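[audit] Reproducing an earlier prediction to check determinism. Same input, same settings, fresh worker. If the tokens differ from the archived copy the diff job will pick it up downstream; this log only records the rerun itself.
[audit] input (141 residues):
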Amino acid sequence: MTLRLAAFAFVLVILAVTPAAAQQSAPAAPQGDKSESEFGKGAYRDGEPGLVMPVIQHRKDPFYPPAAMREKIEGEVQIEAVVREDGTVGEVRVIKSLDTKFGLDDSAVAAVKAWVFKPGHFSDGLPVPVICLMVMEFRLH
């Protein structure tokens, strides 16, 4: 373990697998070029009757930039991501920013884009694209 990794604690919460938690928090205004209606067009959301949500098979922890550590920036980055039918991550957007100056938002997005999931599906077993809400929490020891 490097000093960089030992200098912080990282916690990941995927709200999409807990319907009550996902419905409690209304997303902030999305960042990026796509409107709310265009993001993940054609993908299903949690709460769809009979939908089995994607399950993480492989995840990569985000990098905690040294400058963000020096500034003692802690908190959450909330992200929405489309998990494709093949289990890879497609579109990603930050819905609650923590830091754009020192790179924590970018680090969280880059990590999520590298994740692999067992795809979401309905009872027929055929995979479908699903929008998942994720929270990455950056904490210093």
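[audit] rerun output stored. Observation attached for the diff report: The longest helix spans residues 104-113.
[audit] end
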